[in-house]
Amino acid sequence: MTADLDRLTSWHADWSGLRVAVLGLSMTGFSVADTLAELGSDVLVVTETASEEYARLLPVIGASLWEGALDAVPDELIAHRPDVVIASPGFPPHHAVVAWAREAGVAVWGDIELAWRVRDKVLRPDGTPAEWMLITGTNGKTTTTQLTATMLVAGGLRAAPCGNIGVPVLDAVRDPAGFDVLVVEVSSHQLWYLSLSDAAGRVSPHASVCLNLAADHLEWHGSFDAYRDAKAVVYRQTRVACVYNKSDVATREMVEDAEVVEGCRAIGFDLGVPGPSDLGVVDGILVDRAFLDERRTNALELTTVEDLAESGLAAPHVVANILAAAALARSIDVPPAAVRDALRTFRLDPHRIEVVAVADGVTWVDDSKATNPHAAASSLQAYPGAVWVVGGLLKGVDIDDLIASRGPAVAAAIVIGVERADIVGAFARHAPTVPVFEVDHAQTEDVMTEVVALAAGVAQDGDVVLLAPAAASFDQFASYSDRGRRFAAAVNARIGKDAGDNHDRPSGPVGSG
């Protein structure tokens, strides 16, 4: 068939016979293939490698598989003559298959566009699909997604955190129980694919936020400007509230430039005193001056910094995430009391400024999720004067500015990873009096043991040892989680505790109930 893609804007449209090529067979790619096979489309999955489980399941659901090198366009893909190519987020714009499809005039979608087009599979009691909220930013996306979903659930709504957080949006859309709101974490990769959408596939969320913007994923996007432009797509066609960070001018400019639905409001947040239409902090109290009729003269109390500290949520960047999540929740009429109740039980996931041990006057903190300089700067702001464990895979990002601004204040630096030279050189230029130690072990299992031994020799009573690498983990570890677990295990081994004692905290009631 020659598809009229403009008519494919409902689960109940006729998708049968649509020829689709799905790029990649991760969790996202499988959700795409499974959805389209259920709809009767002719699905070919093209991937470099397939897990045994997915390879076994594809013929069961009625999809075909081609497996092999993708440095060139496979003949089998060309022979399939796809009407649309749906790419997993890992495929960059310059990838051979993506470039071929665009040059050939074949529509290119991501999984988010497909999910939006079929979002009416399960309807709410009023006969409408679930509302969507989109969350992006260089840092804080997952925490803010979890916070928002927690607040919505506390307010009596059925909410599902999904997207880049680890649950494909298509799985949430197809859940037979249905939801009132989908809280969708979207990466810059997914947003780039959304930027290709025409009017028929354009997402129009209830509310959206870009939490912050700093250089990241430049090897994928090609430039900072391209990365910024992808992030800005989050605000496109927002209907009720565009939430932005008043302390990050780039996010405000995104909102100013966005094409939104008439009547949509710009809602700011930061740690300062809020103006009308903002959320902020007054004398240690988090307040809402955006979602109340008397916002020019009054404010609604949400929680206090003191209460947040009791739950380990008082770090400045976490408070900013809480304000952003509260803005999203308040935009759909979640009461302030529900926001407060949600925060009482919420806990951060492991590896996000997580205190893994306190011994001999030294606090050991795992912020392995700080995988870029912007995130590490927030960690260092929360723990000034720390013994800083830094390094890994820099992904083309310049770390010089971070060390120039934060390096002189640290007690010492312990540098790990394959790109140590850039970091050591930056300390020599900007913080020459700070002691710098290199860990050059090639074996993963030895790295954190040496890190902890060095840190224990440097840290004094009252110090913090902070793992905030400002870099990705894949040069030496399986993931940022693996890096954090190994750090915690090495710490606990040194102080004689079981490595699992501090990793059994719940992340908060963000389920659908």
From TrEMBL:
Top-rank EC class of the record's enzyme: ligase
Metal-binding among keywords: no
UniProt KW Membrane keyword: no
Domain Mur ligase C-terminal residue range list: 351-470
Catalytic activity: UDP-N-acetyl-alpha-D-muramoyl-L-alanine + D-glutamate + ATP = UDP-N-acetyl-alpha-D-muramoyl-L-alanyl-D-glutamate + ADP + phosphate + H(+)
Keyword tags: ATP-binding, Cell cycle, Cell division, Cell shape, Cell wall biogenesis/degradation, Cytoplasm, Ligase, Nucleotide-binding, Peptidoglycan synthesis
Gene Ontology CC terms: cytoplasm
Residue positions binding ATP: G137, T138, N139, G140, K141, T142, T143
Pathway: Cell wall biogenesis; peptidoglycan biosynthesis
InterPro entries: Mur-like_cat_sf, Mur_ligase_C, Mur_ligase_C_dom_sf, Mur_ligase_cen, MurD
Domain Mur ligase central: residue ranges: 135-329
Enzyme Commission (EC) number: 6.3.2.9
GO process annotations (BP): cell division; cell wall organization; peptidoglycan biosynthetic process; regulation of cell shape
GO molecular function list: ATP binding; UDP-N-acetylmuramoylalanine-D-glutamate ligase activity
Stated role: Cell wall formation. Catalyzes the addition of glutamate to the nucleotide precursor UDP-N-acetylmuramoyl-L-alanine (UMA).
Protein name per UniProt: UDP-N-acetylmuramoylalanine--D-glutamate ligase
Species: Microbacterium oleivorans
Organism lineage string: Bacteria, Bacillati, Actinomycetota, Actinomycetes, Micrococcales
